[in-house]
Amino acid sequence: MVVLNIGDKAPEIEAKNQSGETIKLSDFQGHKVILYFYPKDNTPGCTTEACNFRDNYQSLGKEGFKVLGVSVDSEQSHQKFISKFELPFDLLADDDHKIVNDYGVWVEKNMYGRKYMGTARTTFVINEQGVIDHIIKKVDNKNASQQIKNLYLK
Q1: Helix (H) or strand (E) holding 51
Q2: Is it the case that residue 101 has pLDDT exceeding 90?
Q3: Mean pLDDT of the chain
Q4: Cα–Cα distance measured from residue 110 to residue 26, given in angstroms and rounded to the nearest whole number
Q5: Which of 30, 69, 74, 100 is 20 to 30 A distant from 37 in Cα terms?
Q6: Beta strands in 10-150 (DSSP E)
Q7: Pick from 147, 132, 121: which is nearest to 25 by CA?
Q8: Which residues does 103 contact at the CB level (< 8 Å), separation at least 6?
Q9: Alpha-carbon distance 20 to 93, whole Å?
Q10: Beta strands 22-24 and 90-93: pairing type?
Q11: Cα 97 → chain centroid
């Protein structure tokens, strides 16, 4: 399994967004990128996290951040999720699991004694040069944006 650390070059991403457009991480060179991985569209925790980014999208943008969400859901699922919750940022469809594997967030999970593979909710903050500045493994869904802002308020 891949283990990424702060200071590592972020693996390149090339994936379709909710509209079928190809998005690359390198398209965001010169910007700070919040790359957040979440398990599933339209589930309570993932909706809370996405809506937190939505509600703070303008203030994050003023601070130079671009937001990208990634899950293994399809483009169509992302379209519905974005429409339902009026999300102003792209969600990338990783249905072949390439991105979650490249970032080391496709992990074995355990729920009620049942083991299965799934996405570990993780946020990577990538700087303007494409280097990982921060990795948040204990994401607070209700305050995901504030967790990031707190890293830069020193």
Answers
A1: helix 44-55
A2: yes
A3: 95
A4: 34
A5: 30
A6: 14-17, 22-24, 32-37, 65-71, 90-93, 106-111, 114-119, 122-126, 132-136
A7: 132
A8: 2, 4, 11, 35, 37, 122, 124
A9: 9
A10: unpaired
A11: 14
Tens of pLDDT, residue by residue over 103-147, are 999 999 988 999 999 999 999 999 999 999 999 999 999 999 999
Beta strands 65-71 and 90-93, pairing class:
parallel
Give me the DSSP letters along 83-116: HHHT--SEEEE-TT-HHHHHTT-EEEEEETTEEE
Q: Cα 117 to chain center, whole Å?
A: 18
For the domain with range 14-152, which CATH number is right: 3.40.50.970, 3.40.30.10, 3.40.50.12780, 3.40.50.300? 3.40.30.10
Residues 6+ apart with CB under 8 A from 37: 69, 70, 71, 100, 103, 105, 119, 120, 121, 122, 123, 124
By three-state DSSP, how is residue 20 classified? Answer: coil
Cβ-contact 45, 121 below 8 angstroms:
yes
| CA 9 from centroid of its chain's CA atoms | 16
Question: Active-site residues: which are they?
Answer: 46
Residue 154: pLDDT band (50, 70, 90) is low
Average pLDDT over residues 73-82: 97
